[in-house]
TrEMBL record:
Keyword annotations: Signal
Polar residues biased stretches: 729-745
Protein name (Swiss-Prot/TrEMBL): ZP domain-containing protein
All copies of domain ZP, residue ranges: 598-792
PROSITE patterns: ZP_2
Region named Disordered: 729-760
Keyword Signal: yes
Signal peptide annotation: 1-21
Length: 792
């Protein structure tokens, strides 16, 4: 406990000691200029309200606004530069002066650090290298100062009346103390120096010079327009009667009070008359030097910086580019973003008088531009192919930062969290501006998407509201931008692959796929439809999978050969409003089977049958035929034959039921040959191959109108082998749905069921009339005999 306490005290003491003795080197800068000290202290160190105290042998003097103007101090807080600056004239009240050559300024810097007042004792000694001119006039921001060589006191051009009045006063004044007469007052009465001091004037007698200092706006000052330029002047005559000699010194300071103007071509202008006061004239042409921040520059440097000095009708006109080197720029929010520039002009006018009575006039003037609009710009750098909005926000000044971005109303603070679909990057330029590149994927959920019917394209919109702040005040303002892009939208496209048992379709979903209806034929693809037709459908937000088994509803088989056949399935994309087909995904896959039967909608039966048991040994499938012996196979191999014929031809029989019609035919091995080859073959050992096509009557059009066979649905085909079990021989009492859903097996001797179901032909509605007609009469009897008369 005791230890803790000690530690605390030690810490406190050590802190106090550091505070008292050491000021961080980088926090303070002290410089010697031609005619004044410059003390600059970092505002980060001092806080916003530092104080200075001047120190001399007689005491410590707080530098207040009033005392500063009287005593030769100027204090400026420059938040834009981050420091507070104190300029002290070499003739300032409490500066130690050795022979007008070595000046020492002792002062205290008083700051409040964490609520505690800390005082730093500091000093700076300077020896200006520039010799003093006989007369030196300084037009500071808060005072005028004039110093003259005290040895030379012969004024040449004093106005007669003033001079006489002064003389008279000097004679009548009984004292040897210095008196002063301030011209400009109506009553020119002499006063002693302490009286003048009370009135705000300061007089110093240095080693070799007499100094007068006066704040601006004194009652005794002159204000007048000279050559159209406002000028303020102070004119004092100092005198002293030393027995029979009267010493008189005329002190005059005159300064241009022009406030500066901004011409809209980007120049700050400042005017001063060449001759500011009748007592400040020049025998030869005045010489002008210009600079910034209390430092004059050589003419070529000034020219390079774009400073222009023109003599015009008795005035000097100074023009400085608003953003010239040395200008301080500041952003400001007033609804929109504005900026202004502040320029600390420093000017020297040399006036050359008789007998080398030269006058050096130095003026400090702070020029500020009005508020200039500082528009930021945003540029649409979107490349639509990248499916990414790219927006550049440019010309952002140094003292402005981006803090947040509203994207379609949703706020994101900067820097963005790591989200790949929108990013923002800062781009820094050498001209003290920076910019931000915003990238937002068009697929980002924050991007508004709207399908535009007229353009037939997807419209992506992004409204951007940038929130920027001006530093260091953090004053916010907003910049708006809006970008829009169209992307072509194409109907969805399925990827399809052939599988052993069918065709598998896959769709990667896009957000705008709702613009199309996905249909199979004319039916909307729904899970109910999939259930009904035996499709296997699985769907999530990203993809849709559809597996279409062979011969399911919508499956089309074509080009049957002995090698196999092609199965085709088509998914169509339709406009939901017009039902117009806009695109389709079609996949055709090869399939191979041993046996196959197809009953087409246009009335053709195509069959590939295994005849290995229907033929005697050594039999040849080429020798097979249908009931009509002239109807032979189209194609054969060692054991199989392919027949393709119109349902009503080749000796087919027709069985008409209440709801179904069945066409039947048979494949024979040529009897003649059979008998010849092996007469002993019992006929019962020969496999009889029957082929059937069954169509629901409801779907048939004009069954008997002779010219056409047209069915809504393909028929259900069967191949019946007599040598096998009779399972497959059941008469077709199928429900249309069960027919299309459950496989119909053709049975073979191996008893291996082949997954095979009746297939479709494309709806080629009109068959060749001639062949149909040719066959019709032959079959008429059969047909009629088997038709239920009720059907007529
Ligand atoms: C001036 O300051 C220095 C330290 O910066 C110090 O050593 C010196 O004593 C000071 N002089 C006076 C006269 O205070
Ligand atoms: C200066 O003049 C004022 C008023 O005229 C007078 O009161 C004062 O005593 C004088 N001071 C000195 C030091 O003579
Ligand atoms: C020059 O200045 C005088 C007075 O200051 C004025 O009358 C005159 O018009 C000026 N001349 C020009 C050309 O501006
Ligand atoms: C974002 O990710 C990068 C690398 O993936 C990382 O370097 C960075 O720090 C992350 N930024 C934030 C804000 O998480
Ligand atoms: C700054 O430089 C950038 C890049 O060179 C340019 O786009 C921008 O216009 C410049 N801005 C100003 C204010 O000069
Ligand atoms: C931009 O965002 C700011 C801050 O949310 C809001 O005050 C301002 O109204 C917005 N501007 C527009 C045009 O939406
Ligand atoms: C932006 O750029 C894209 C791509 O160049 C263009 O399609 C769009 O019309 C542009 N304008 C706006 C306001 O988004």
């Amino acid at each position: 406990m005791a230890l803790d306490f000690c530690l605390g005290v030690t810490l406190l003491l050590s802190m106090w000691t550091t505070a008292k003795c050491d000021i961080p080197k980088e926090a303070i800068q002290m410089e010697c200029h031609d005619r004044f000290f410059v003390i600059a202290v970092d505002l980060a160190f001092t806080g916003s309200n530092p104080h200075f105290e001047a120190v001399d042998e007689s005491g410590v003097y707080a530098i207040t606004k009033q005392s500063a103007a009287q005593c030769g101090y100027s204090i400026g807080v420059l938040p834009m530069l981050g420091h507070v600056e104190l300029r002290a004239s070499y003739f300032s009240c409490h500066t130690e002066n050795k022979d007008d050559e070595v000046f020492t300024f002792n002062f205290n810097l008083v700051v409040a650090i964490e609520g505690k007042i800390a005082t730093y004792a500091l000093n700076k000694t300077c020896s200006p290298s520039l010799p003093w001119s006989p007369r030196e006039v300084t037009c500071e921001v808060n005072y005028m100062e004039v110093s003259v060589k005290s040895e030379v006191t012969c004024p040449s051009e004093t106005k007669k009346e003033d001079w006489n009045a002064a003389l008279k006063s000097a004679y009548t004044s009984a004292t040897s103390d210095w008196q002063v007469m301030l011209h400009g007052d109506e009553r020119v009465l002499p006063m002693n120096l302490s009286e003048a001091h009370k009135r705000g004037y300061a007089f110093h007698l240095t080693d070799s010079r007499l100094v007068l200092r006066a704040p601006y706006g004194q009652p005794e000052s002159f204000s007048a327009e000279v050559k159209g330029v406002p000028v303020e002047a102070v004119h004092a005559t100092l005198f002293s009667r030393q027995s029979w000699v009267v010493l008189m010194v005329d002190l005059v300071a005159a300064c241009s009070m022009h406030e500066g103007s901004y011409d809209n071509s980007g120049y700050m202008m400042w005017d001063t008359p060449e001759v500011l006061h009748p007592l400040m004239t020049s025998e030869s042409e005045t010489r002008v030097k210009i600079g910034v921040d209390g430092e004059l520059v050589e003419k070529p440097v000034a020219e390079e910086r774009g400073y222009i000095v023109e003599k015009y009708n008795g005035t000097l006109q100074i023009s400085i580019p608003y953003n010239a080197e040395g200008a301080i720029r500041k952003s400001l929010v007033s609804g929109d973003l504005f900026e202004f520039y502040v320029f600390a002009l420093y000017l020297e006018q040399m006036l050359f008088g008789e007998d080398q009575m030269d006058t050096r006039l130095r003026a400090h003037r702070t020029l500020a531009t009005p508020l200039l609009p500082r528009p930021l710009y945003s540029e649409n750098r979107t490349v639509p192919e990248q499916r990414m909005f790219t927006v550049y926000l440019g010309d952002v000044p140094e003292d402005v930062g981006l803090v947040a971005v509203h994207l379609n109303g949703q706020v994101f603070t900067v820097p963005f969290m790591n989200v790949s679909s929108h990013t923002i990057t800062k781009v820094i330029h050498p001209n003290n501006t920076h910019g931000y590149t915003l990238k937002v994927s068009m697929a980002d959920p924050i991007v508004r998407q709207q399908f535009s019917k007229e353009d037939g394209a997807m419209q992506h919109t992004l409204e951007i509201n940038y929130t920027l702040t001006v530093l260091p005040e953090y004053e916010p303002f907003y910049h708006l931008a809006s970008v829009m892009a169209f992307t072509d939208v194409s109907p969805p496209v399925f990827d399809a692959v052939c599988t052993e048992s069918g065709i598998s379709f896959k769709l990667d979903r896009r957000p705008f796929d709702y613009l199309w209806e996905i249909t199979i034929g004319s039916d909307l693809l729904t899970s109910e439809l999939a259930d009904q037709h035996g499709y296997i459908m699985s769907t999530d937000s990203n993809s849709l999978l559809l597996e279409v088994p062979l011969f399911s509803h919508g499956f089309k088989s074509t080009e049957a050969t002995l090698k196999g056949f092609f199965g085709t399935f088509e998914i169509t994309m339709r406009d939901p409003e017009t039902s117009e087909v806009q695109s389709s995904s079609v996949k055709t896959c090869p399939f191979s089977t041993t046996e196959l039967i197809m009953c087409s909608t246009d009335g053709r039966l195509t069959v590939v049958a295994d005849l290995s048991l229907a033929m005697p040994n050594g039999g040849n499938p080429t020798r097979t035929n249908l009931r009509d012996k002239y109807c032979g196979p189209k194609e054969t191999d060692g054991t199989r034959a392919l027949f393709s014929f119109p349902l009503n031809s080749c000796g087919s029989t027709v069985k008409l039921g209440k709801e179904y019609v069945t066409y039947e035919n048979e494949i024979f091995f040529s009897k003649k040959l059979r008998a010849l080859k092996n007469p002993a073959d019992p006929i019962n050992n020969i496999d009889r191959v029957t082929v059937q096509c069954t169509y629901p009557l409801s779907g048939l059009f004009r069954l008997f109108s002779v010219y056409k066979f047209e069915s809504d649905l393909a028929g259900v085909g069967r191949i019946l082998h007599s040598l096998q079990s009779t399972e497959g021989l059941r008469s077709p009492t199928m429900e249309p749905t069960s027919v299309t859903q459950s496989p119909v097996y053709t049975t073979r001797r191996t008893r291996r069921p082949v997954s095979m179901r009746p297939g479709y032909q494309p709806p080629a509605k009109y068959i060749k009339v001639s062949s149909f007609l040719k066959n019709l009469p032959k079959k008429k009897g059969t047909l009629q005999s088997k038709i239920n008369p009720r059907m007529y």
